[in-house]
Known about the structure:
CATH architecture of the largest domain: Sandwich
Number of helices: 7
Oligomer: single chain
Number of strands: 14
Distance between the termini: 47 Å
Low-confidence stretches: 1-37
Amino acid sequence: MEYACRIYDSTIAGGAPLLCWDVLRKVRLIWEVDLFVRITTESRSNTLSDLGLTSSSNPIVSLNEFTYKKGSEIYGEKEPAEYVYQVRSGAVRTYKMLPDGRRQIGAFHLAGDIFGLVNGDAHRFTAEAIVETTLRLIKRKSLETAADSDAVVTCNLLSVTTTNLQHAENHMLLLGRKDALERVAAFLGEMDKRLSAAGVVTLPMTRRDIADYLGLTLETVSRSISRLHRAEVLSFVGSQREITILNRKKLLALDLQG
């Protein structure tokens, strides 16, 4: 819905209102640029090792680096899958909007993760930056060309693909067979392995994100975390996004019940 922008020109007797659609468009443009701008460094020559991939020939490839503001879209569902991405810093969520308006998050991609590899020409999910996030991008065709001539690159890409498949299978099991507490325990166990630094897990995602990933309501996630806190399985450090796992054995036992 568009709204008219009314301004008053002091040079007109009585300060007659003027409809100023140009002002509205400029304000909207400034707002969009401020919210969604992508800060980029120039493209430069790198090797696949800079993307975390090994190869026998280590060919020179062109990598672009972009920084996305919090909440900005990296690519949309059904958009052409022209690039493969690696998270340098920050975090990314990939999700699909269901016909009834609900959001199902399929994965969280954290520092070092490679994502955007798809079986087809278009993305099946939308990807967004959870926090300000820096990504490295390589053209998919460049990666495919390297794989055609280098068996080591092919094995690397196969490893990335099977890891993503394993995650999808675990996520399917979590959604289909585990209760709310088991799902939250499994999620925290996974984040403990992927994010733990100096014994503290700093979660970049909100509890709403966690709920949409686990197929639960926000209230259920909060109750489950509070229950784990009361059971002295975890404690909070500073904010409720900074968690210390106090009893990993008990957390794992809850996860294995599913």
